[in-house]
Amino acid sequence: MNPTTRKPHNSSALAALGTLLLAAAATGCSQEGRTVQAVLPVQGVAWDATSATVTQNTLGDTISVLATVKFKLQTTFANGCEARGGLELRTEGTTTEPLFVITPVARYTADEPCNIGLSGDTLQTLTVANLRLDSPRTTIADSIARFEVRGFGTPPIRFDVNVNVASSGDTTTTYVIEVEDKDTGAAAAGALVRVERLGTADVLSEGVADANGRYLFNVPCAGTAGSAADPYVVKVTYATRITILSVPLPDGALCKRREFVIVRV
Q: CATH fold of 167-265, please?
C-alpha cells in the first residue's frame, strides 16, 4: 500500500493571500516559531478506482482483491495556511482486520505569512495503490477494507471499500451518494440531492435520498472504462442546511466505474 498525497485545489484562496500579506506583519512576534497543528472539518468524501485484481486461494475460502483507490475529501479552512491542506493515513486494529484512518491536518508555524484570516473550502486527494481487500468468506462482494475519516467537530465518517468500486461489468458511470447529518452521522433520509456537471448547466440527476440516506443513479458514458468522465458538483439540501461538494477534473467520476460519495449536511 503506497499512499500519496496531492496538493489541494485552492487557487482562489492562494490568490487572495497576496493581498493580505501586510496584515500578517502586524501580528507581531509573540508567537514566532510556534508550531500549529489543526485538524480540519470535512464536508464530504468521495472515492473511486480504476482497476481491481481478484484472486482466490486454492481452497476457495479466501477472496483477495488488490485495487488502486483515490479518495477525495472536501475540507474547510479558517486561514491561508489551512488552505494548503494535508492528509494523513494510518492503520489501527489488527493486521487481519485493519482500520484505515484518514485525517485532514494542517501544520504550520504561527508566524508564517499564510497565517491570515481567510475562509473557504478545498478538495484534497489521496491515492492508495494496491489496497488489499481481503475476506475469509466465499463471496467477492464481502471483500472489504474499512475506512474512517476523522475531521474536526463532527462524528467520524465510516465506510467500507469493496470490489464494487472497480466493477468491470459496468456499462455506465454509476453514482452512489449517501447523505449524513453532520452533527450525528445518521442517515439524512429525505434530503434533496442535485448533481450537476461542474462548470455547466447540465443536471446529471436530482431526487430524494431514501430511508438510508442514499441516492443512486447512472450516467451513460461512451469512453474507455476507467477514463476521466465528468467533473461534478453535488448540492444537498436537508431541512434548512445546504452543503455543496465540488469535484473538478482530473478528480471527477470515471467512465463505466462507480463513484461513491458521502456528504455531510
A: Immunoglobulin-like (2.60.40)
For the chain, the domains span 1-166, 167-265
Per-residue pLDDT tens over the stretch 175-231: 999 999 999 999 999 999 999 999 999 999 999 999 999 999 999 999 998 899 899
The C-alpha atoms of residue 214 and residue 242 are separated, in whole angstroms, by 16
State the Cα torsion 13-15-17-22 to the nearest 10°. Answer: -160
Three-state DSSP string of 175-216: EEEEEECCCCCCECCCCEEEEEECCCCCEEEEEECCCCCEEE
Residue 139 CA to residue 61 CA, distance in Å, equals 9
pLDDT tens for 70-99 read 999 999 999 999 999 999 999 999 887 899
Three-state SS across the chain?
A: CEEEEEEEECHHHHHHHCCCHHHHHCCCCCCCCCEEEEECCEEEEEEEEEEEEEEECCCCCCEEEEEEEEEEEEEEEEEHHHHCCCEEEEEEECCCCEEEEEEEEEEEECCCCCCCEEEEEEEEEEEEEEEEEEECCCCHHHCEEEEEECCCCCCCEEEEEEHHHHCCCCCEEEEEEEEECCCCCCECCCCEEEEEECCCCCEEEEEECCCCCEEEEEEECCCCCCCECCCEEEEEEECCEEEEEEECCCCCCECCCEEEEEEEC
